[in-house]
Specification:
mainly beta, 2 domains, ten-stranded mixed β-sheet, 18 strands
Length: about 180
């Protein structure tokens, strides 16, 4: 579907593809993938067994939230520019490819999967991370505020740049990676 002002859609079995929706989206599927492109507004996406992909999604107004939740599937966000983003997957990876807005709050969670962020070299954020079985790697320099480790869990807080946005990252069984965003051609 495309070129509709605002949409709320729920299906049991099948994929949902939405393009150029300017007034906000609420979409849910029990078994299927969700794809949202070139849209704006408050966004709430939910898939019980499927992947969620959002590309070039912007808020229509200040304060609008982007939410994506998948019980069994990956979440991929590219150029999603909302100031508040929540992406939660129980079994699946979470990938964020974009930049953080000053004052923004970003939450990326998965119980069993990796979390990858591809961000610009000049990104500015405070990262609060907790992870259990897995690893952490960053291509960007971090200034650690604290770092704790036990047999079962590790957590830390660190800044990249001046720490203008807050990024909360949690994975129980998976790795966390912060990569330098590749330049667009």
């Amino acid at each position: 579907m495309e070129n509709i002002k605002k949409i709320a859609i729920k299906i049991v079995d099948g994929n949902i593809a939405l393009n150029n929706i300017p007034g906000g989206i609420t979409a849910s599927t029990l078994q299927g993938n969700l794809l949202v492109e070139s849209s704006s507004g408050g966004i709430a996406l939910d898939s019980t067994a499927g992947n969620i992909i959002a590309v070039d999604v912007v808020p229509g107004q200040i304060g609008e939230i982007f939410r994506a939740k998948s019980n069994s599937g990956s979440i991929s966000l590219k150029n999603v520019t909302h100031r508040q983003i929540e992406a939660n997957s129980i079994t699946g990876s979470v990938v964020f490819d974009g930049n953080f807005s000053s004052g923004g709050i970003y939450t990326f969670r998965t119980s069993n999967g990796s979390i990858r962020m591809n961000i610009p070299k000049d990104a500015s954020c405070k990262i609060v991370a907790a992870y259990g079985f897995g690893s952490f790697r960053s291509e960007l320099p971090l200034n650690f505020i604290y770092h704790n480790q036990t047999d079962r869990a590790r957590n830390f807080a660190a800044t990249i740049g001046s720490g203008a946005a807050t990024v909360n990252i949690t994975t129980t069984s998976g790795s966390i990676g912060i990569n330098t965003q590749q330049r667009r051609q």
